[in-house]
Amino acid sequence: MALTNTQKQLRKQIYQRLADEALQPGDPLYEPLYDPPGCEDHVGLLHDHMELSGPESFQLFSGFRGSGKTTELLRLKRRLEEQGFLVFYADALDYVNPSEPIDISDFLIVLGGAFNDALFSEDVFVNKPIELAKNNYWQRITAFLQNTNVDIKEANLKTSVTGPISAGVDLKLELRTSPTFRQNVQKFLASRIGDLRNEAHRFFEDGVKEIRQFFDEEKQVVFIFDSLEQLRGSLSNEKDVLQSVERLFANHLPMLKIPYVHTVYTVPPWFKFVKIGRGRINILPSIRQWDNDEARSRCHQGCDTLTNFVQKRFGREGYAEFFGQEPDATVKTEKLTDVCGGHFRDLLRLLREAVLRADSWPVSNEILEQALVEVRGDYLPIAIDDAIWLSKIAQLRECALPTVEASDVSRLTRFLDTHFVLYLKNGEEWYDIHPLIREEVDAIVDRHKKINGENVNSPK
């Protein structure tokens, strides 16, 4: 039966609630993943580390695409603010080009600039600016560059007749968009990195000092620098970009620790495999839907969480209308949740495809199967070498990383970022491949064995 006008309006509302967007704290659509007993609350760990560390701390946080990282960071921000912390948030992609290599010199410049912009966009300082606004970071760093051996004309730094602030804005833009400018700055500052660090750190120290004077208390300051995990490069320079990010955190970690500030950087999860950050990286896992045994026994807690997620997005009325009455509703819901791999992004895609195709309610099994086929198609085709490695991961429940060479780490990172491989935890960490590709991987490997008459037992 065709949808009624009321159902059409409800369908539109549901489809919009299935958008893949980070949720703000307090949003009724948020599903509290880490409240059940026995769940490791990663936001709680970040929070407690700050609380126990005194006036400053340094943490690395990560999550694979679609893991809900940004939503959890916003939850951390609200929790800290409720306790009196002053929390600043900045998106690194507003300051760096994710497709270009990054150097410690341009990173220190944009780090201070991002803190500056977050500081002066804070509502509490709008009507009563702190003294630091009279000589902000962009002005200070522009003056620093002009007072060093940086040839402004050669570096193509655009100045403006409107004064130092406009020059600072140009500096931010040039660092993000002009590889030539960035390379020239790197060259000129190669022997002055210590001076640049001191200049950046002085700004942070001055900022914290004035913040505490403004509030007349020992206000603790937090700076969250998000999206650094998205520095990946393109097909032509991916290796160079990844190596530059690795050098940044492996060789210059002390410079990235900001005085008197609790700093959280979101970093690529592959840092774990090359032991960057002294092993202390908080990584969000996929929601665990099965146990680490041969049969992949159902993990009811994780599955229930995803069912709750679906019910919240559809709403009580929408859920009953779309999926029908029990027990059919649960069976149909699980047809989608059981193959999402514990990733909200994949589940949202499955649900949106089903809603888009269903021109009558309750939704039919045929429509749900069409949604599965559509989303599974995003993973295909799978190269033979990839299938061999993926099969090994599925058998061993390990990442099966052959080496920590850039090519192997990059390939594994691609598996994880695209959800071909899932990172899971229940006490110990383990890996598995996405449910949507299990049969396809097995079929590819079996065909390869038959054609070559060989026993494939390791990734190439």
Give a brief outline of the structure.
Helices cover 51% and strands 9% of the residues.
| Low-pLDDT windows of residues | 157-167
- Please report the total strand number as a whole number: 7
Largest sheet: 5 strands, parallel
Assembly classification? single chain
Helix-strand topology string = HHEHEHHHHHEHHEEHHHHHHEEH
Strand order of the largest sheet: 2-3-4-1-5
Percent helix, as a range, is 40-55%
Give the number of helices: 17
Rg estimate, integer Å: 25 Å
- State the secondary-structure class: alpha/beta
Describe the structure.
The protein is α/β, with parallel strands linked by helices. The chain folds into three domains: 5-20 and 290-379, no CATH class; 42-284, no CATH class; 384-452, Arc Repressor Mutant, subunit A. It is 51% helix and 9% strand. It has helices at 5-17, 42-53, 69-82, 104-121, 137-147, 164-177, 179-189, 193-215, 238-251, 253-256, 300-323, 328-337, 344-357, 365-376, 384-396, 406-417, 438-452, and strands at residues 57-63, 86-91, 221-226, 261-266, 281-284, 421-426, 428-433. The strands form two sheets. A five-stranded parallel sheet has the order 2-3-4-1-5, sandwiched between helices. Strands 6-7 form a two-stranded antiparallel sheet. A hairpin with a 1-residue loop joins strand 6 (421-426) and strand 7 (428-433). Helix 4 (104-121) runs parallel beside helix 8, helix 5 packs across helix 6 and helix 11 (300-323) crosses helix 12. Mean pLDDT is 87; it is low at 157-167.
